[in-house]
Design goal:
The protein is of the alpha+beta class. It is built from 16 helices and ten strands. The strands form three sheets. A four-stranded mixed beta sheet has the order 1-2-4-3, with helices on one face. A three-stranded antiparallel beta sheet has the order 5-6-7, with no helix packed on it. A three-stranded antiparallel beta sheet has the order 8-10-9.
């Protein structure tokens, strides 16, 4: 924590503006008390923008091996939930508000232009990725840059586009993408969705919305905005999972089944999608029965 404080002070002295800090809960040796102290310490320094994330375990990461071997003490599921709502309660009480999910700001403007365009612009804004493993979206095509550094550099130096994988999205894909992205930010304005796609959200996704409403994970406001509840925020992965099409889930299961060593595979290393955790559509549907 002391190193962070010194770094922030140095940046302030240099006149750096629009500073945003990442806070991650569920780290090794982290306790409820140390988590609280971290939040309060940064608030005392006047930080106005935060990204508050849970630690995610990937078999390709050393931290996952530490967990498996019991090398460090990790917070359990109950403690992680308490940490999530502790941060949410403190920040809300002090006048901070959500940008996209996990993003908090005390200012009136968006948390960041990049996040606003990614989550709130629906399908009318292109995203151009720079760097290894960058995510892009153009002309209804979703794609990723090379995830291997050597391959990325060799293609860039050769004057080629360093695109690794991509897919042209169908109308159904676009509707699902829009819904998942918007739910993770300011919500889905139902009238706008119907104007854009010519179909009602409540009609097209009737089964999914019924499941989520019964579970208390989504709600519809009086002005017609579909959004996540507090319970939905912390279970956003499960909510998104319900909107994956069977076709996508089967393709994910097929690709996942071809991985021979998850400790080194690039797909496993870079895929944080909830679809990869459940596999086929049949397995996914069993989660919600």
């Amino acid at each position: 924590m002391e190193e962070v404080i010194q770094t922030v002070k140095l940046l302030n002295e240099m006149g750096v503006e629009n500073l945003s800090l990442d806070l991650m809960y569920g780290l090794p040796q982290q306790t409820l008390r140390s988590w609280y102290d971290s939040i309060i310490g940064l608030l005392d320094m006047g930080i106005e923008k935060f990204n508050v994330f849970p630690l995610m375990f990937k078999s390709t990461d050393p931290v996952a091996r530490h967990l498996a071997r019991g090398r460090y003490q990790f917070a359990g599921a109950k403690e992680r939930i308490i940490m999530h709502f502790m941060a949410e309660h403190i920040l809300t009480k002090l006048g901070y508000r959500h940008g996209p999910i996990f993003y908090w700001t005390k200012r009136s403007q968006p948390h960041s232009v990049q996040q606003r365009r990614k989550y709130d612009s629906w399908n009318d804004n292109n995203l151009v990725p720079f760097g290894v493993g960058g995510f892009g979206y153009m002309s209804q095509c979703q794609f990723y840059n090379e995830a291997d550094l050597d391959r990325y550099l060799s293609r860039v130096e050769a004057g080629e586009k360093p695109v690794w994988r991509g897919v042209v999205l169908s109308q159904d894909d676009l509707m699902r993408r829009t819904l998942m992205f918007a739910l993770r930010s300011s919500g889905v304005l139902l009238s706008r969705f119907e104007r854009e796609f010519g179909v009602s959200v409540e009609e097209y996704f009737c089964r999914e919305l019924e499941i989520l409403r019964e579970a208390g994970l989504v709600c519809i406001s009086n002005d017609g905005v579909l959004s996540l509840t507090a319970a939905g925020n912390i279970n956003s992965g499960a909510v998104s999972l319900l909107f994956f099409s069977d076709n996508v889930l089967e393709r994910v299961a097929y690709n996942d089944g071809r991985i021979t060593d998850k400790r080194t595979d690039l797909l496993e290393k870079h895929d944080y999608s909830p679809a990869a955790r459940y596999g086929s559509s049949a397995e996914m549907q069993a989660v919600f029965r």
